[in-house]
Design goal:
About 45% of the residues lie in helices and about 10% in strands. It is α/β, with parallel strands linked by helices. The protein has a seven-stranded parallel β-sheet with strand order 5-4-3-6-7-8-9, covered by helices on one side.
Amino acid sequence: SVPTVAGPASRAGFPYTGPRPGLRAPTANLWAPVELVVYPNPAYERVLAIAPAHPFGNYNYARLALVRGDLARAETLVGEALRAKPGFPQALVVQSNVMDALGRLDEAVASLQAALALQPDDAGAWYNLGLLLQRLARADEAEPAIRRALAADPGNPSSLELLARVLRDQGFAEQALEPLRDANARDPGNWALRSLELLLMNFADGIPADALFRRHQAFGADMERAVPARFAPPAARLAVPRRLRVGYLSGDLILHPVTFFLIPVLEHHDRTQVEVFCYSFGQAEDGITRHLRQLSEHWRDAATMTDAQLADAIHADGIDVLVDLAGHTERARLGVFCQRPAPAQVAWLGYLNTTGLTRMDFRLCDARTDPLALSQPLHTERLVHLPDSQWCYRPMVDTAIDPVAPIERNGFVTFGSFNAALKISSRITRRWGEAMARLPGSRLVVCNAHGSSKRTAMLRDIEAAGVAAGRVEFVPRVGLDKYLGLFNGVDISLDTFPYGGGTTTLDSLWMGVPVLAATGDTPVSRSAASVLQLLGMDDWVAPGVDEFVDVAVARASDTVALAALRRELRPRMQASPLTDMPRFVRDLEAAYGRMRGAGSSGSRP
């Protein structure tokens, strides 16, 4: 027989970093990396011609076929190995990888579970199981699998990273930061991991704004030391007599909150003055992507480009104003901006905080989210205020408002929270419970808290205020066509803290449902409040979390005002700058023009 040991499998871009033995050819005495073995392989073909049921021959050849992309042959070979040797855990791991590559994820999970029943201390198999479960949006099941991987291989950076991502998916920012910081301490040059830490710090409760800024600043200093600016100083490439070339960079040019705001902007750009370039580095594509491609005069697919290649392409395109729509979110490409491919580089929309880069010249925002005296000292970029708001709203679907508020039908107030689970901190949930305790019969409808662990944590906080769990309803996630209709069952939307709502806040107001918000010391904690203040709804903004309950009770007790707002809010939005897209884009283009001239001068546009 040909002895072999199965190493943990990996996926491109998210590898397991544990030990990985090579492939032993049947005629050799040495291990060879799978990638270096000839395929189709004459030696394996001879062995299997003589002994077609040879378990190790089929197993090893299946690994080779998998690596070379011959999935049908790999499936057949690993199946033969398992028929010859049913209790073969290494072959079950390979079978899982084959099923994964074929897109049959449930079968991949079953194969791994069978392998782990036979070999329960295989750290790589536990890691792979956790990764598969995470991709299947089964984070509550993925967490114990990853913890088993770490028990078998303590401190493994890949497992620490995956645990952080799973805890994030469950909606627990503070808990996710613990393994993430451990992973970053072991691999400080992993920019994606460090960006994830900065992103999650915006969601975590109790982190002071100045501490958050220092972490961003340290990231920027480290990245700018590692990634030099490669192109001519901006002054050498400033204004020329042609249209302003604006480049938008994003990995989320799909059905995503970023595109909800970007599409109307591209539709309203004055093409006699602005030439639009889009650089898409996302892996997925959908109908929104195709629509954006049509709206762009120049579209660049950049998913397979390195940062240097993308920077070269941007510089070759002669971009005047380069707009980052990602910041430190997933698929961030801040390494491109470090290379300084454009004379004016600006952060907008996707990340409501500083990037930490001194080579990011500007950040677009507004005076309510980012008062200069408060926010400028906490940014490496120069803040540029748009006149009215940092965003302009247009609903993605047309949904009618039920003119009768639920409180008019039911006799009690119904609160709602449709924000992402990650935004719902324990502190704000406790305040929700305290408000409900003072409003007999009040109810809460929650959408987007998918996992049982998050629901359990929320109920624990609410029940601590003396509110029965039966007064809280968790509704499943729905499609965009039904999502806005959920607001017809809600009287008041409760904003989250410390990361407030953006798109969800605007959706709620559009559907005639007022939003109750609290402000804090970071831009993300002022986003919902900024919209409310623009609409003249200052009495719906609590100055802090401690005042949230009193404001909630006061607003919920005014049944007449709630009923009136139901019918008045949409017309109020339609008459406000929040939905005046031509005006917004004119202001945006004017800001871009000033940025091009100010990019190298140090002046404020």
